[in-house]
Amino acid sequence: MTFDSPATQGPPEVAVTEDPASTAQSGGKPEQAEPTAPVQEVIGVRHGMFGVSGTGDTSGYGRLIRTLSLPGSTPPPYGGYFDEVVTALARALSDTVFAAAIEKIVVDRDELTLHVRREHLPVVARTLRDDQDLRFELCLGVSGAHYPADTGRELHALYHLLSITHNRRVRVEVSAPDADPHIPSLYSVYPTTDWHERETYDFFGILFDGHPSLTRIMMPDDWRGHPQRKDYPLGGIPVEYKGARIPPPDQRRTYH
């Protein structure tokens, strides 16, 4: 699987149409081209509801076939203020750093997502915060995602940033392989990520390097595993109720 990167394109530019008719109708000013939808990247195929197989299921769910895909890279123009954000970031980072740091740019469902290579995350985040044309001063939260079929990029961390100065939003997404789940912490750039990164570590197992106290925040300290990963056992742990021991849902006896 390959991912498009702006490495050979330089800083993105906003394309404009040169159609004479449209220029005349707009009073001599060229119109901005419509943003192009991203191409979907297929990462796998799922058979059955929740991965069911070989169970004799007669509900119809066992025969469901669903293609698993993620939005691919979106070509410019991106529409709205997205072009201004991308252009300002490319200018602030320089062409070389921008090409090395940004893996792909995705505009999907009217939201701008910058996929950043993890080793460049602190530099990109600090630039987004400090540059006068960007000024994303607030990190609204950190969330995680687990895509077992996305080989080499199974774990994702997502940072939601808000510019109070310009009233703009952007999402920064970083990925890491399951075998090396390390991502630099943004605590030094956005101190509000303290508990959010702890929660993402607790539920997904992402290790945020440089975090001042990366400990569990929801589950007990001696808990094994990370409950929101796709490979976590369905049903969790047995339940004890009035002296009775009830197994997890996926281990209970079924009646036909």
TrEMBL record:
Keywords: Cell membrane, Membrane, NAD, Oxidoreductase, Quinone, Translocase, Transport
MF (Gene Ontology): oxidoreductase activity
InterPro entries for the chain: NADH_DH_suC, NADH_quin_OxRdtase_su_C/D-like, NADH_UbQ_OxRdtase_30kDa_su
UniProt keyword annotation of Membrane present: yes
Compartments reported by the entry: Cell membrane
PANTHER family, per database record: NADH DEHYDROGENASE [UBIQUINONE] IRON-SULFUR PROTEIN 3, MITOCHONDRIAL, NADH DEHYDROGENASE UBIQUINONE IRON-SULFUR PROTEIN 3
Subunit structure: NDH-1 is composed of 14 different subunits. Subunits NuoB, C, D, E, F, and G constitute the peripheral sector of the complex.
Protein name: NADH-quinone oxidoreductase subunit C
Source species of the chain: Nocardia albiluteola
Lineage of the organism: Bacteria, Bacillati, Actinomycetota, Actinomycetes, Mycobacteriales
